[in-house]
């Protein structure tokens, strides 16, 4: 899909020849003397329509407008959130096969964040999965013009939105693919394709390399599968090599059966999404290649399947992680932490300024936070605040969870340095406490995206989260995006937010 940004007044929008013209009208809209203004004012006055976010009025073949279809959409207070809501409400029109070219015009001021949100919402609404359909109907929408009162003022935000579309779609695409079309090997080839982009290098380690590194925990998970594991290493270099990188680690379980502690059959297909963390890391690199910010980023993805088999790791087996710590595998379904812990140990070699792991880690996190906010666990308050602010600004929010040391008590084992599970209570927190044993004193955060990486039910599919959060975070680190979201009016460190004491 091709986006362009233009300075376009409502009076000029009447001459736009798109298949669909969407007019975003905010509260307190002041009509001009053009035909679209007159229409909007008339509809508002007669009570047939309102400017509340998402309220729309569809019109057809207006004599004074060149575009055949016009939709007036309420943009509420004009914030990124409202604009997103407004455009997602037009998903039907944006997905229609006859709409190949659309124009979206801001009838009032266009806040930069709202322009980025518009670009992303249009892409989100019109995305179609095609990879494994025999007669795919690809996305019809090919060209989108965003019309604003002042294109120069919105340029940077627009570019960020376009880059995020590329990143989010890359992540959605790979996460949506079924496990037989997204094996560890195929995931590694997707990463290698990113390695051809400017600023990006990719290295892929196989089972022999991983054994040599001593990653006994990662190896144990991969044992039950015929598909060989891959350990993917991505480097984005946007700053001098001497500058410490941010390391992102993505859980890449391409299918999670639970292993010998096998899962129930219902909805097990959704465990193809268990590489959502990995997909988001790939998506971030895709976006970085577009934006080229002055930062260094390393991406690490331990990728394998979790399968039951004669060779599979068994409950009670003790494995030795790369850190030297031994782990009693009490439940083979708690495999995510077993692959992540070795990747976190490996990460230390890059002397990172911060590391963030991203994982569809626990069902408990879905119970705690549902599908709206990802779970955020952090050993460092500054890092936590940055990620919280980035999530709010990106409309990809998270919520900080506690890490008190007492939560780790259940991880005690009689036969190893630790077990891989504690009790049922606080399951997302005890998982985070397990990971924390492998991070040393590097500032670390963990995002549990089990509830946010995909949607179930009729709308089943990957969301591409938290690519938006992570890219905003990385850009903020180099001052390339506002640290404060004007759109939500939330300060970077909202005083109303509970701020757990540092417990690392
Ligand atoms: N991939 C799952 C987590 C998951 C489950 C995400 C359901 C989304 C929906 C993870 O590997 C897992 O199985 N976790 C277990 C941990 C338990 C055995 C301590 C869980 O959450 O049940
Ligand atoms: Mn599992
Ligand atoms: Zn899993």
From TrEMBL:
Sites where the protein binds Mn(2+) 1: 256, 333, 335
Cofactor note as given: Binds 2 manganese ions per subunit.
Catalysed reactions listed for this entry: Release of an N-terminal amino acid, Xaa-|-Yaa-, in which Xaa is preferably Leu, but may be other amino acids including Pro although not Arg or Lys, and Yaa may be Pro. Amino acid amides and methyl esters are also readily hydrolyzed, but rates on arylamides are exceedingly low; Release of an N-terminal amino acid, preferentially leucine, but not glutamic or aspartic acids
Record's compositionally biased regions (Low complexity): 490-504
Gene3D superfamilies in the cross-refs: Leucine Aminopeptidase, subunit E, domain 1, Zn peptidases
Domain Cytosol aminopeptidase residues, every copy: 331-338
Keyword presence, Hydrolase: yes
The protein's Enzyme Commission number: 3.4.11.1, 3.4.11.10
Principal place of residence: cytoplasm
Cofactor: Mn(2+)
Location(s) in or outside the cell: Cytoplasm
Positions of the catalytic residues: 263, 337
Hydrolase is among the record's keywords: yes
GO terms for MF: aminopeptidase activity
Function in brief: Presumably involved in the processing and regular turnover of intracellular proteins. Catalyzes the removal of unsubstituted N-terminal amino acids from various peptides.
Protein name stated in the entry: Probable cytosol aminopeptidase
Organism: Paracidovorax wautersii
Taxonomic lineage of the native organism: Bacteria, Pseudomonadati, Pseudomonadota, Betaproteobacteria, Burkholderiales
């Amino acid at each position: 899909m091709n986006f362009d940004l233009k300075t376009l007044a409502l009076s000029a929008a009447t001459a736009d020849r798109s298949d669909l013209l969407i007019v975003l009208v905010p509260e307190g809209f002041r009509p001009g003397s053009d035909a679209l203004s007159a229409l909007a004012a008339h509809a508002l006055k007669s009570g047939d329509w309102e400017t509340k976010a998402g309220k729309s009025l569809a019109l057809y073949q207006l004599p004074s407008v060149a575009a055949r279809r016009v939709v007036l959409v309420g943009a509420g207070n004009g914030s990124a959130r409202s604009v997103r809501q407004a455009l997602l409400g037009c998903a039907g029109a944006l997905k229609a096969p006859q709409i190949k070219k659309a124009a979206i015009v801001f009838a009032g001021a266009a806040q930069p964040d709202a322009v980025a949100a518009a670009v992303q919402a249009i892409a989100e609404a019109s995305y179609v999965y095609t990879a494994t359909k025999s007669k795919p109907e690809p996305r019809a929408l090919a060209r989108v013009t965003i019309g604003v009162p002042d294109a120069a003022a919105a340029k940077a935000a627009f570019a960020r939105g376009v880059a995020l579309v590329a990143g989010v779609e890359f992540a959605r695409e790979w996460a949506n693919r079924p496990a037989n079309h997204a094996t560890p090997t195929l995931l590694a080839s997707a990463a290698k394709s990113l390695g051809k982009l400017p600023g990006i290098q990719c290295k892929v380690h196989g089972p022999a390399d991983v054994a040599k590194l001593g990653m006994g925990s990662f190896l144990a998970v991969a044992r039950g599968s015929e598909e060989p594991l891959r350990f993917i290493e991505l480097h984005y270099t946007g700053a001098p090599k001497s500058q410490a990188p941010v390391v992102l680690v993505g859980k890449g379980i391409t299918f999670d059966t639970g292993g010998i502690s096998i899962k129930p059959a219902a909805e097990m297909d959704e465990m193809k999404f268990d590489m959502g963390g990995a997909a988001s890391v790939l998506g971030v690199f895709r976006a970085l290649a577009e934006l080229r910010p002055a930062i260094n980023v390393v991406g690490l993805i331990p990728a394998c399947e979790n399968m039951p088999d004669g060779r599979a790791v068994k409950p009670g087996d003790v494995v030795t992680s790369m850190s030297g710590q031994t782990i009693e595998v009490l439940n083979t379904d708690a495999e995510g932490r077993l692959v992540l812990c070795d990747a976190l140990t490996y990460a230390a070699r890059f002397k990172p300024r911060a590391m963030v792991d991203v994982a569809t880690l626990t069902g408990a996190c879905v119970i705690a936070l549902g599908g709206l906010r990802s779970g955020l666990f952090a050993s460092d308050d500054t890092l936590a605040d940055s990620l919280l602010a980035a999530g709010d600004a990106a409309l990809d929010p998270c919520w900080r969870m506690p890490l008190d040391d007492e939560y780790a008590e259940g991880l005690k084992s009689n036969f190893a340095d630790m077990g891989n599970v504690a009790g049922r209570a606080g399951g997302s927190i005890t998982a985070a406490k397990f990971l924390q044993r492998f991070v040393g004193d590097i500032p670390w955060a963990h995002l549990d995206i089990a509830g946010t990486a995909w949607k179930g039910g009729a709308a089943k599919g990957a969301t591409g989260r938290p690519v938006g959060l992570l890219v905003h975070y990385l850009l903020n680190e180099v001052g390339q995006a506002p640290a404060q979201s004007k759109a939500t009016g939330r300060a970077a460190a909202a005083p109303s937010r509970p701020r757990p004491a540092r417990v690392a």
